[in-house]
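Re: weekly structure request thread

Next one in the queue (365 aa):
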Amino acid sequence: MLKSKKFWSYDLCQTSELRPELFENYKIKGKFFEDVLYFYKEIGIAPHPSLRQPTNKEITEVTSISFINSKVDLNTLKILIHLLPFSKIVSLKFCTNNFDINNLEFLIDSILTKPNNLFFFSYEWNDKLSIEDKVISITSELDEANIEIFKKQQELMNKLCTSQKLEGLCLRGNLMGDECAIKIFETLKENQMLKTLSLYNNNLTSACIDAFCSMLLVNRKLEEINLGRNKFVDDDLTKIKDNTGMYLMSNEDVENYNKKIKERDQIIKNNTKLRSQKKPEVEVPFLNEMENIDGQNFIVKNKNLKSLNLMQNLFTDKCIDDLKFILENNEELLITINEKIFTEEQRNQLLDKANKFKDRIYFSK
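Done, posted below.
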């Protein structure tokens, strides 16, 4: 063991050797900060600032760790990952860290494959990465090699969405773009574990709205979605309207729906034969549920959303009818949208006491 220094240094901690046998031989006490200190003493350095014992002696158990405005070295991540399953930490936050892409890959892969008790993970305002001792912004002029590194970051963000345990994921401020968002939405059609997702400030546009709406139709687990500070327009809100809520069906609608049910059942039956013959199966079409309420039939699209943040986009007052429609057909949904896009008269309409959704719209300044 080296003589411990009183300070933490990224370069020193990143390049120091933390031997595997130290993890194997150390008997964990279950006191998080004491256990952390042991490994840093072996390195000969003070703990990372985010892993130091709080000065408040009343804090005996830690349930969340935040790395804010600081780089995070590989050894710090190894120590954290090793101790997570023996702690009560359920939330990790990484904010403005200028990650080395290899360290980030280790972190994400470890979160997904190693034992832990996490249910919330935040990776936010990380639109910059450290590349060969330089901090490169995603908005900078990038050569082909650096572009590939940022694509790797996007792949890792999508990989996070495959987690079978995380219930909350915050990816705000990473400027990931439509291509990354589309992959995330496609992943969330298959993996429906998340309850909350924030894609605030990620350069999202109309190019990803179809993928978002397609995800909404099948993913009934997500309750809170933050799409604020992007570049969505009125037509995008129309598409969201068409893919959420409950809609009263006419007799003709019911007849057509029952016809589609029969067609789908036949496809499923035929696929059974194709499967036994080891032939390619036909894709089974998705159908929304039909629900009968007090003798009336309704098509049920996504009615499980509780919160949808749409602030700081490119909506205009022309979206007011779609906004009303969404609120009327989603009885538990709270929508956040910018106040200034509406006239005073329109705001009064939305907040009129006669409207059953007056308490479910929040105007941001």
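The chain has two domains: 61-246+303-364, 247-300. The radius of gyration is 25 Å.
Next request, please.
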